[in-house]
Amino acid sequence: MWLRPEEVLLKKALKLWVTQKSSGYFVLQRRRGHGDSGGRFTGRLVGALDAVLDSNARVAPFRILLQVPGSPVYSAIACGATLEEINQHWEWLEQNLLHTLSVFDNKEDIVSFVKGKVKALIAEETRSKVAEQEEDPEKFREALVKFEARFNFPEAEKLITYYSCCCWKGKVPRQGWLYLSINHFCFYSFFLGKELKLLVPWVDVQKLERTSNVFMTDIIRITTSSKERDFSMFLNIDEAFRIMEQLADVTLRRLLDNEIFELDPGLQDPTQITKRDLEARAQNEFFRAFFRLPGKEKLHEVADCSLWTPFSRCHTAGRMYTSDSYICFASKESGCCNVHIPLREVVSIEKMEDTSLLPNPIIISIRSKMAFQFIELKDRDSLVENLLLRLKQVNTSNPNSLVFHSTCVFSDCESRDLGMVASQSEDKSEGEKESSHLLNAEALRSVFHQSGPEGSDFRVSREQIKERLWNDHFAEYGRTVCMFRTEKIRKLVAMGIPETLRGKLWLLFSDAVTDLASHPGYYGNLVEVSMGKCCMATEEIERDLHRSLPEHPAFQNETGIAALRRVLTAYAHRNPKIGYCQSMNILTSVLLLYAKEEEAFWLLVAVCERMLPDYFNHRVIGAQVDQSVFEELIKERLPELAEHMKDLSTLASISLSWFLTLFLSIMPLESAVNVVDCFFFDGIKAIFQLGLAILEANAAELCNSKDDGHALMILSRFFDHIQNEESPLPPIGNHHAFFSDDQEPCPVTEIADLIRDSYEKFGDHSVEQIEHMRYKHRIHVLQSHEDTTKQNVLRVVIPDISILPEDLEELYDLFKREHLMSCYWQGMRPVILRHDPSRPYAEQYRIDSQQFTNLYKLVSPWTCGEHTQILAERTFRLLDENMDHLIEFKGFASCLDVMCNGEMNEKINLLYRLHIPPALTENERDSQSPLKNPLLSTSRPLVFGKTNGDTVDYQKQLKQMLKDLAKEKDTKTEKAMPKMSQREFIQFCKTLYSMFHEDPEENSLYQAIATVTTLLLQIGEVGQRSSSLGSGSDEFTEDVQSEASASAQATVFTDTVKTTHKETQSLPVTEGNWIISFEQILASLLTEQSLVNFFEKPLELKPKLENAKQNQYCLKTNGMSDQSLAEHMKLNTQ
User: Which of 78, 210, 486, 878 has its CA 20 to 30 A from that of 685?
Assistant: First the structure.
């Protein structure tokens, strides 16, 4: 790194430094004792001095000096921890400064120039660090203007960041700009006169990965359902991919995963997301995953420092993480030392005197009389101030913490009993004393003690040896949740925790002990409230109670069953979002064996909400994500097995129970508890590596397996022959394991050996690597669920409609996108319900009136110019049968099917219902227009046909149609459609006129509808008059038709009502009893062949769908030109 120039006297430094390179003005030096294996006495002395004083962090082994020829004074301008780092600085000086210095006349100018340049470099580095957190406002504002102009999104589409890169189109790279916004991934290029625009919604991304192609070794590949696109030549590809990964994850969770959305406040308002927020979110999630902390914990500070580790008698370099309720430390060397310090355990935080040996030290004292010394903390004052403020808040919000409820589950008071007895207060709260439900005060293992088999002295002695080892470890590393967690404790855990300590150590490793101490009386009150209440969760719990470790005596009587019922019911009441899921009963049964009932409850909370988040819910998304990660690990670590088993989904389905039950339903219990030991210490990483070790142990047989069933049998037989020789418990049969054929001998596998192999061969995956893989595979899993939803909806809809399956699939995509676009920019209006995957498939996506109108304009064949908006609103009201202002895809598709493929009577039926309530409302705009059009005059001659022959045929057809409709009406039990009033009929006619606009047969259609309309008005008026005389309009209709057919020469109907008005004048309209029926309208329309042809003609939906895919986004934007309509969605065509 570059240093602010400081003068040094070279003569005094000669014995400590060795010159490596020199030029006219610069000297590169190496500190003695570093990098030379010769081992001279001076080098050894300097090296020993550095080691004893622990000064490596403050004295870099390499430096560059600025020398003034002829002067003993030099200036240090750069230092480096490695030779590569210092050589980069040296090369920069040679390339950029050495040739320039010769132009100066005197030495003072040279020194001044070089010092000024170094200071400028330091300032530039500082600015670049700031720029990483906050974009240059001017450049960002310029990019934002270009983004808005090029893609014309609404203002709500917030730009997060942008990058210069290349998009590969085939073998040709297109240089341009990549814009990352809250909902979209956009690329713009203008190269050699050709413009390229790409727009990909994040919810359409199926896969996001870093890979390589023929031309580039490091590219970012975006995969959608239709295309793959490669991007390369980023200035900082690591940062770009990290931001893209975060944006895809955040958007998919926000829009497609309702359960996570409700639990994560950071997803609630996407307009507040910034680049800095995304980076902080990624760091926050890593922090919570690494230390397995509650999801509500928010990371505040991350500081490099060193922690005094008494077991190694030195300071260990690492990083301090501080959050709302915790202070955590992780060493830079993986697995060397980790520490969790809950703030409720902290007694004091103090600053110590700053010395050269202990720079910027602080001491954190905890209740168990331990103290942690941290040194080399930058901004120590502000850090301590913030920690003290949060400590005060924790003590204020948890007044119980002022009373000593320690998280120490072991004490030193009874050394003969390994110094390990519960030190937690046994006093129960008033709520617990009055509880009608007696809670178990001991672990079920203690109550239902099982003696080991004969000759088990060896096992007992092994247990005693383990207990002594653990006792020694506690004495050196601590015995509370704040203990030093090192590689040594990992080895002890891998050997298997002693039976007497297992439950207590599970509490410490999971930090459930902190929740237990922070919530005295909580579980007892929860049991009191939840027991006796009946819901779906309690019914499922009751079904599974007797399936939980039925082979263990603890669950063969009511004591164990009642405790299991209370814990599961209390948790379902605490977390109704999860409620109860299968496999929770098996896990809770084992927890109750080794922990008290209340402790088992908090262990279950830790597993479900911290260690396996998103596992135990309706869709088990978390488990499926980890199955997908496991598949990738198999391909990476067991390539031969992956090559043989082309479809790894079989192994994934088999291994699902491994993850959900932590092998408890697969292995014999005495062996499986050792796996649970590792899980509580190392988290899900332990399950991944053990799964890989199991597959490797069976790889040869699996590669020779004939089919999936054979592979399943191989693994089942392997699990049945896993044993734990060191367990003091008798072997317990596993009723959960698969039945296997033991005709062939199978070697016995020792669980301790299997766990040791898993750590040695597959334990090198870090939490950070697993979290990155989870990001990638969560996209795949959520999109798989979306595909499943889509296929199930289509499977239900396809049998009932005539639209082609491929067209229906595209229609579903349009329907879903319309719903999602409302989530993008319009916010969640009160009527719009968020996508809820727990609902039935057909109800997961629904649209409101405005969204329906947009889709109607795009795909409906019934377009009526300006009248289309009104017709769309009426159609929505007709389909909204339950009046919740939302419609599902099936209703939308069925309506569109009638419009495109329905028979004439179905189309007229739909049109008729669109012009009566509830589709037509009293206050609807454009529905109060008076009858002014001369085409609707009742005194106009009504011509049926051009020839007498045609006339007679139409009259016979009309009469027969009326009779058939009457018979059909009599046979149907459903309620007849309401009759249409004159006001409603006028709107019906107006819609018909609008539909014929721009049709090739427009003139003949207008003439035909004028003829039919006049006839229907006459029928309605005569019916109105006859109803006033007491006769029904239905009988009158047939009389009119009879009179018409009686005259062979009747080619014209004349007005049977005498009137004082002229023929060209419209008849005054009064509502009165003027009504017309659907049957009368249909029969009248059938008299005109041009109308029959118009309505019987099937309409093509595919062109409408193609146009809609291009222009759907345009309806959401403002002021887009016709040219941009075609360009805006080139994603789908290029």
Answer: 210
Q: How would DSSP label each residue in 177-238?
A: EEEEESSEEEEEEEETTEEEEEEEEGGG--EEEEE--SS-SSEEEEE-SS-EEEEE--SSHH
Phi–psi pair at 282, nearest 5 degrees:
-60, -45
Q: Please give the C-alpha separations between residue 959 and each of 952, 954, 1031, 1094, in angstroms, as whole numbers.
A: 11, 9, 20, 22
Are 710 and 703 within 8 A, CB to CB? no
For residue 1099, is pLDDT > 80? yes
Q: How far apart are CA 772 and CA 1043, in angstroms?
A: 83
Lowest mean pLDDT among 354-368, 456-470, 750-764, 949-963: 949-963
d(CA 985, CA 1077): 10
DSSP string, 6-26: EEEEHHHHTTTEEEEEE-SSE
- Distance, CA of 324 to CA of 243 (rounded, Å): 25
What predicted TM-score, i.e. pTM, was given to this entire model?
0.76
**Sheet bearing 159-169, strands edge to edge:** 194-201, 184-191, 172-181, 159-169, 228-232, 219-223, 207-211
Could you tell me where the beta strands, DSSP code E, fall in 933-983?
Answer: 942-943, 980-981
SS (H, E, C) 469-493: HHHHHHHHHCCCCCCCECHHHHHHH
The tokens for 704 are 């020779």
Identity of the amino acid at 367:
R
DSSP at 842? G
Nearest partner of 901 among 788, 807, 970, judged by Cα: 807
In whole angstroms, what is the distance from residue 493 CA to residue 502 CA?
A: 10
Residue 547 CB coordination number (10 Å) = 14
- Angle value at C-alpha 1069, between 1066 and 1075, nearest 5 degrees: 120
Q: Which two tokens stand for residue 922?
A: 């009293």
What is the band of 822 on the pLDDT scale with cuts at 50, 70, 90? confident
CA distance 317 to 332: 6
Cα separation, 632 vs 688, in Å, equals 11
Lowest mean pLDDT among 370-384, 496-510, 992-1006: 992-1006
String of DSSP letters for 1034-1083: HHHHHHHHHHHHH-TT--EE---S--SS-TTSPPP---TT-EE-HHHHHH
Token pair, residue 117, equals: 């340049």
User: How many Cβ atoms sit within 10 Å of the Cβ of residue 844?
Assistant: 24
**In which residue are the tokens 């230390």 written?**
291
Helix ranges (DSSP H) in 498-576: 502-510, 512-518, 522-530, 536-544, 558-574
Q: Tell me the C-alpha distance between 637 and 761, whole Å.
A: 9
Q: Which residues, 6+ apart, have CB-to-CB distance to 298 below 8 Å? A: 284, 323, 324
Local structure of 31: helix, strand or coil: strand
**27-41, 87-101, 760-774, 1007-1021: which has the minimum mean pLDDT?**
27-41
Quote the pLDDT of residue 1041: 41
List of residues 6+ apart from 1110 with CB closer than 8 A: 1125, 1126, 1128, 1129, 1132, 1133
Which sign, positive or negative, has the C-alpha torsion 271, 276, 282, 285? negative
DSSP string, 154-182: -TTS-EEEEEEEEEEETTEEEEEEEEEES
Whole-number Å distance between alpha carbons of 510 and 606: 6
What φ, ψ does residue 180 adopt, rounded to 5°? Answer: -110, 115
